[in-house]
């Protein structure tokens, strides 16, 4: 129950899923990487201004998705489809048999043939058994087919979304939507991608797509077959005129309904987008409930949620309104016009029998009546079934339109993920207003990245925040023009600088979350002996207390490396969290850890992870800011004794004592200059100008040689602050005196 999966050297895994008190095993093979390369051409992005609906493009998109949903012509899905088809045909044949039998039973009744009537009833019940079984199987296979499609698509998307290329992060950042907003296709959900809307697309939209698709197969396949078989059955009794009448009726109905059908596909896509926005609002409150509660922000959040819901409700309301006239047309044509046409057709052989044909073949008046009744009853039943089949076929036009909406959304998700996977971004021209500095669009990323060396190197790398979604046309934002940084083993480096200068951005580029636009980036690989990143916001995963320490490893991997809980206990002691297993009820305890642990405990858990993984290099981003300074010091020293080279991002120069080098970013003097208010500080300003950082926005110093300079800088800061405060004290005293005089009535 503790292991989530058993890995296999081939890359496949056996998932262990608890089900009805037992462990059910699911064997999963990873999607081969070259399959994604091969499929890339199947998913060209939606073109600007592309018209979405049931058109040629829709069928192309559907075929591309079906290549994933039905991966082989001999696989399980193909078999299910075949079985489904078999039952659909069986049901049609059974319907014809029931119609004929119906006619015979009534004939025997009219002609008072008791034995024939009883025999007919016997057959009636005999046919009921396969008929009911067939109906149930059709419903079962339809759902099973939908589930099989969904499983295939979900696995494919998971492998594409959560992979080494970090597509989940890039998609959430909106990089997939890095096309100028004006040229995005209408109904294209990539704008949703910009705000991290993948969950709605992967869960609800995908499920709806699979359900609609599999239902549509039955809803189109079965009535189409019915139509052919019933028409051929009827044409024998209706004669050529009736048959022509039938076909003209189909054509006319299809034409009228096509003209009357509104853009259901686009409406379904918009509904799904609005559902996604509403859902995102709700999940944000669930995630950040504590913060919202502290601010007493319930009312504000309710307002935001209500407006999202209202947009959805308004849209659904307008769709419903559009459906009223369409529904009337549909019902009028299919139910009433078709039935009237059916009566008309049935009357042809009855009202205009071919001379002598009926009487000659029956040999008597009562038999003649009985035969006419039989014909009438079975024809009527066939015609009713025909009307029903035709109706379902016409109704499924609406389902098809809706399917086109879901298809667009699923296709767009797949196309976006494929584009991210192949790093295929459009080249965007710099706007005319953009002059003087390089333009950073995602289509022009040219940096070189080498993973594997035993050092971290940035050579002429610009630190740029990429912009996706609607901001793509503005290009990325340059934070540092060009960074040169080389960190070898035991060169513990502290990176400091004011807020928003780009400290975390350096680690994002090192971790390849953001692109390296130019220059050279070299870094160790992830994993043992490599590099480890501790992000600014502590992340606690779903799972047991043990899982928190060993994340992202699994218990199975931990055991396979021969590591024990005793070792984990030692690690928790090193981060002063040794009390946790006994307090929380052991290593197996599963809780919502992000709510259970305090801010400082979360950060210490992050350090515990670092000690567990023991990398060669670690980039620690402000990850001890909530830890008391004595424990912080112990943890830094311990990390160094484990042989971990620290690259720390922080605001606090107090951490300098654990490092040997100091990289300062930004113009620090700018922050201080706001404090320098009087001309009496001219001398201090002059001293500062000798300390300014290099013009390109960063400066590296080694702590030993620069300690005098660092000290001088700190002394200077103290001098500036005390001078400013001295000035303020004099002002406050003057003001106090004024107020006291006012109170005592002197003024
Ligand atoms: N996803 C993003 N898209 C665009 N700009 C971003 C993105 N993330 C961060 N930025 C911007 O990049 C700049 C640098 O951010 P970064 O997180 O590197 O700052 P920092 O130096 O680590 O600041 P702090 O000390 O506050 O953590 C900020 O102005 C920020 O607004």
From TrEMBL:
Biological processes, Gene Ontology terms: fatty acid beta-oxidation; long-chain fatty acid import into peroxisome; peroxisome organization; very long-chain fatty acid catabolic process
Cross-referenced SMART domains: AAA
Sequence similarity: Belongs to the ABC transporter superfamily. ABCD family. Peroxisomal fatty acyl CoA transporter (TC 3.A.1.203) subfamily.
Name of the featured protein: ABC transporter transmembrane region 2-domain-containing protein
Lineage: Eukaryota, Fungi, Dikarya, Basidiomycota, Agaricomycotina
Native source organism of the sequence: Kockovaella imperatae
Keyword hit for Nuclease: no
Matches recorded under PANTHER family: ATP-BINDING CASSETTE SUB-FAMILY D MEMBER 1 (PTHR11384:SF67), ATP-BINDING CASSETTE, SUB-FAMILY D MEMBER (PTHR11384)
Cellular component terms per the entry's GO annotation: peroxisomal membrane
GO-annotated molecular function: ABC-type transporter activity; ATP binding; ATP hydrolysis activity; long-chain fatty acid transmembrane transporter activity
Keywords: ATP-binding, Membrane, Nucleotide-binding, Transmembrane, Transmembrane helix, Transport
Domain ABC transporter stretches: 456-693
């Amino acid at each position: 129950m503790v292991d989530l999966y058993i890995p296999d050297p081939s890359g496949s895994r056996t998932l262990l899923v608890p089900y009805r008190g037992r462990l059910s095993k699911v064997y999963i093979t990873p999607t081969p990487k070259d399959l994604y390369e091969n499929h890339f051409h199947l998913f060209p992005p939606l073109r600007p201004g592309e018209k979405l609906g049931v058109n040629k493009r829709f069928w192309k998109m559907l075929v591309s998705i079906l290549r994933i949903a039905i991966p082989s012509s001999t696989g399980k899905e193909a078999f299910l489809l075949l079985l489904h088809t078999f039952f659909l045909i069986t049901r049609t044949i059974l319907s014809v048999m029931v119609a004929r039998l119906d006619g015979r039973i009534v004939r025997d009744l009219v002609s008072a043939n008791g034995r024939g009537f009883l025999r007919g009833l016997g057959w009636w019940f005999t046919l009921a058994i396969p008929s009911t079984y067939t109906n149930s199987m059709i419903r079962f296979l339809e759902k099973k087919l939908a589930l099989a499609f969904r499983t295939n698509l979900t696995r494919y998307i998971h492998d594409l979304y959560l992979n080494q290329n970090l597509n989940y992060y890039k998609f959430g950042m909106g990089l997939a939507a890095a096309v100028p907003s004006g040229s995005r296709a209408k109904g294209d959900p990539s704008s949703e991608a910009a705000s991290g809307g993948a969950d709605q697309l992967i869960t609800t939209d995908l499920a709806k797509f699979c359900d609609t698709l599999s239902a549509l197969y039955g809803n189109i396949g079965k009535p189409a077959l019915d139509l052919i078989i019933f028409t051929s059955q009827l044409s024998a009794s209706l004669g050529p005129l009736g048959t022509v009448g039938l076909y003209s009726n189909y054509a006319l109905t299809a034409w009228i309904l096509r003209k009357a059908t509104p853009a259901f596909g686009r409406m379904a896509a918009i509904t799904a987008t609005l559902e996604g926005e509403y859902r995102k609002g709700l999940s944000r409150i669930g995630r950040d409930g504590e913060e919202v509660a502290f601010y007493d922000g319930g009312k504000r959040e309710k307002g935001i949620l209500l407006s999202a819901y209202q947009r959805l409700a308004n849209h659904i309301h307008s769709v419903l309104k559009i459906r009223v006239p369409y529904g009337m047309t549909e019902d009028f044509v299919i139910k009433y016009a078709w039935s009237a046409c059916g009566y008309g057709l049935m009357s042809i052989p009855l009202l205009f029998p071919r001379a002598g044909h009926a009487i000659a073949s029956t040999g008597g008046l009562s038999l003649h009546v009985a035969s006419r009744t039989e014909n009438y009853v079975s024809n009527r039943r066939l015609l009713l079934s025909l009307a029903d089949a035709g109706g379902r076929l016409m109704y499924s036009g609406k389902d098809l339109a809706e399917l086109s909406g879901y298809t667009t959304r699923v296709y767009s998700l797949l196309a976006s993920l494929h584009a991210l996977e192949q790093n295929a971004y459009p080249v965007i021209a710099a706007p005319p207003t953009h002059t003087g500095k390089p333009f950073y669009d995602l289509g022009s990323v040219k940096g070189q990245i080498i993973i594997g060396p035993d050092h971290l190197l940035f050579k002429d790398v610009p630190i740029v925040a990429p912009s996706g979604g609607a901001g793509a046309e503005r290009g990325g934002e340059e934070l540092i023009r060009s960074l040169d940084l080389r960190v070898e083993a035991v060169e513990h480096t502290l990176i400091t600088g004011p807020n928003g200068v780009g400290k975390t951005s350096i680690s994002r580029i090192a971790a390849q979350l953001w692109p390296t636009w130019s220059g050279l980036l070299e870094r160790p690989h992830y994993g043992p002996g490599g590099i480890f990143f501790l992000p600014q916001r502590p992340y606690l995963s779903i799972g047991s207390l043990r899982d928190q320490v060993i994340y992202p490893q699994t218990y199975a991997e931990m055991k396979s490396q021969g590591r024990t809980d005793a070792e984990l206990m030692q690690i928790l002691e090193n981060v002063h969290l040794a009390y946790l297993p006994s307090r929380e009820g052991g290593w197996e305890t599963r809780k919502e850890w992000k709510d259970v642990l305090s801010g400082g405990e979360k950060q210490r858990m992050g350090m515990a992870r670092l000690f567990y993984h023991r990398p060669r290099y670690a980039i620690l981003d402000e990850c001890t800011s909530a830890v008391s300074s004595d424990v912080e010091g112990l943890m830094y020293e311990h990390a160094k004794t484990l042989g971990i080279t620290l690259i720390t991002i922080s605001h606090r120069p107090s951490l300098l004592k654990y490092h040997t080098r100091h990289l300062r970013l930004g113009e620090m003097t700018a922050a201080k200059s706001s404090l320098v208010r009087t001309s009496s500080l001219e001398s201090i300003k002059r001293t500062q100008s000798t300390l300014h950082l290099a013009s390109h926005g960063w400066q590296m110093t080694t702590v030993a040689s620069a300690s005098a300079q660092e000290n001088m800088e700190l002394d200077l800061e103290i001098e500036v602050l005390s001078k400013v405060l001295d000035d303020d004290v004099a002002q406050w005293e003057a003001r106090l005196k004024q107020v006291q005089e006012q109170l005592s009535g002197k003024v």
